[in-house]
Description:
Blueprint: E1 20-21, E2 25-34, E3 37-44, E4 50-55, H1 67-78, E5 87-93, E6 114-120, E7 124-125, H2 126-130, E8 137-138, H3 139-158, E9 161-162, E10 171-173, E11 179-181, E12 188-189, H4 210-213, H5 222-237, H6 247-258, H7 275-278, H8 288-291, H9 297-306, H10 317-321, H11 346-365, E13 444-445
Parallel strand pairs: 1-5
Antiparallel strand pairs: 2-3, 3-4, 4-6, 5-6, 7-10, 8-13, 9-12, 10-11
Helix pairs in contact: 3-5, 5-9
Amino acid sequence: MALAALGQLNVEELPSWGSRSVDCFEKLEQIGEGTYGQVFMARETKTGEIVALKKIRMDNEKEGFPITAIREIKILKKLDHENVIKLKEIVTSSENEKDEQNNQVTESNKFKGGIYMVFEYMDHDLTGLADRPGLRFTVPQIKCYMKQLLTGLHYCHINSVLHRDIKGSNLLIDNEGKLKLADFGLARFFANDHDGNLTNRVITLWYRPPELLLGATKYGPAVDMWSVGCIFAELLHGKPILPGKNEPEQLNKIFELCGSPDEINWPDASKTPWYNNFKPSRPMKRRVREMFRHFDRYALDLLDHLLTLDPNQRWTAEQALDADYFWNDPVPCDPKSLPKYESSHEFQTKRKRQQQRQNEEMAKRQKLPHPQQHARLPPIQHVGQAPSHWHGPNHPMNNAPPPVSSGPSHHQYGKPRGPPTGPNRYPTSGNQSGAFNPNRGGQVGSFSSGPYPPQGRGPPFGGSGMPVPGPRGGHSGYGVGPPYSQNTQYGGSAAGRGHNRNQQYGWQQ
Ligand SMILES: Nc1ncnc2c1ncn2[C@@H]1O[C@H](COP(=O)(O)OP(=O)(O)OP(=O)(O)O)[C@@H](O)[C@H]1O
């Protein structure tokens, strides 16, 4: 099959798609559990190649094959880029197989069989990787991941694809340091005039832009760029920056950080469907630069242009890649120079948290001292999961040997891991613009999932599917002034630069 050049779509199709059985693969371990299916690490029996198998969940489908899976397959078959996950083929299983929990198929599902998407295998997702105790990403590493994220997204956007669920667990990373966008279950092709009516119920809440929270149904690539801004700040700050519990609170957090919409910062805000329901009761000042004053000026400048309320003024992926941030020291590192980690996926870190909770409960009951809690452990969401193992205190980023372990792990060569006694991986403060040693320096950022955000796929505003009728509808924090001090300056722009470095990415517009 001829490969598409960078920036081009893949127009050829493998003839064998769907014709092979999943029996050609040996399932090794479950590595993911998503809204739409389980993900397994597997080995192709014939070639020994390690792949990821994503089983398409059919049990809730009354109307046949799920539309999200159809979309994901359709889009991924067309995309061909080094920063976008590669869908290798589709395989099927016979209708009377047992399900993954070893339950026999029932009357209602017995004729459905199983359909799996076969992906290239990636060792980590960004959330799972960053949740490793003791891990600190360096600034060149963050720049390297950000550059790849933006390059992959730029490719999607110039090919008229919106991702619509950019978040850490959908950014996959291999041990060559390559980052790839994954989970195109919410993605769709878009028209450049943004004239169509698109669904408003997309993007995981913490990464959802203000225009969607205000009900917009005509939108474009800028929605993904807001999510990128949230991830960027999270990488540098060490924790999610806008962890709202529900849509009104999410909007309130956005306004507290980015200021309330007005005629200057977002002239069209008042035209959004739910503006009158959610507009703040009094003006709020923009505080991005104050809140993140510990970032260096180039990082702040990029962040400021990504976390821009008005989607029309928000930077595009192309503009972001041209930001001074990527062109000033310390420059992004070469992906290949990144340390290799034992594999980690969010699903597994959730299991570890589950195990820790159980240990704590046990310790409480036995009146023993509590096991040490990792600073950033989110609440448990899944119960009844199998125990796993802790990562040890030593970490490649700390110039120490890799963790050692005694039990089974993601890889057969996995080693035992001890309790999380490593240093806190969140940067405290300090200017990052000084001299830097990528492997040793104190200029570190980090990233973590924190408590799990509500998913972007459910209906907004609880079960009703309707917006809360007013800004004060039961939400105490809404419309109340922000808790920050007033003596800050907002400004800064990278506008006016004459030089464009875009051609260095080999894009085709
Ligand atoms: N190609 C892959 N290689 C390794 N791990 C993968 C791969 N694809 C997915 N995973 C793991 O499985 C998890 C879930 O996959 P994915 O996001 O595609 O499923 P989903 O059902 O759409 O999930 P969600 O509802 O969380 O969006 C990912 O976060 C990742 O950890």
